[in-house]
Each structure stands twice: as C-alpha cells, then as structure tokens.
Amino acid sequence: MHTNPATSHMFIVNPLSGLHFCLKVLSQAKRLIIAVIGFTVLFTGIAMIVLPGPAFIVIPAGIGILATEFVWARSLLKGVKT
C-alpha cells in the first residue's frame, strides 16, 4: 500500500517531552508523599496536646516536613522558630 507524502500527516515527537512528563509526575508524587507524611506527623502532634507525648517536639517536626515542599509551612515554621 502506497501513501502519498503530500496527504500523509507526520507528527514530529520530541523525545524529551515524555521525559519531562515523567519528571513532572514524579515531582508531584514526591510532593504528595511529603504532604501525607507531614500532615500525619502534625496531626499526631496535635493529638499529643491532650494525649501523653511530646507535642512541643512533634508539631514543629511535622511543620518542618511540610516546609520542605510548601511555602505556607515554611513561613509558619519561621514564626514557630522565633
């Protein structure tokens, strides 16, 4: 079967676009994992306010974990440090 080059549609695919997509997905997955871990530690620390445990250590640790990925947590951590 012969195709006419004038009517066939050829798409030029950038091989780096797939790599860019994979890196973006991995970055978002990392951000999600850090958010889940950070909020888990933070909520555990909040629970330790009424339960026995070192809440004053765990809450800043949770905020510190979240601060690695989120600007709002970074500014909150600065407020906790001072």
Describe the model:
This protein has a domain at 29-81. The mean pLDDT is 84. It is built from three helices and no strands. It is mainly α.
List the helices and strands and how they pair.
Blueprint: H1 15-47, H2 55-67, H3 71-81
Helix pairs in contact: 1-2, 2-3
Rounded to the nearest angstrom, the distance between the terminal CA atoms is 75 Å
Element order, helices and strands? HHH
Helix vs. strand class: mainly alpha
The main β sheet shows up as: none
Percent of sequence in beta strands: under 5%
**Coarse shape:** elongated
Low-confidence stretches: none
Number of helices: 3
Q: Could you estimate the helical fraction of the residues in percent? A: 55-70%
Average pLDDT figure: 84
Indicate the radius of gyration in whole angstroms.
24 Å
Number of E-state strands: 0
Brief summary of the model shown:
This protein has 82 residues and is mainly alpha-helical.
List keywords for this structure.
82 residues, mainly alpha, 0% strand
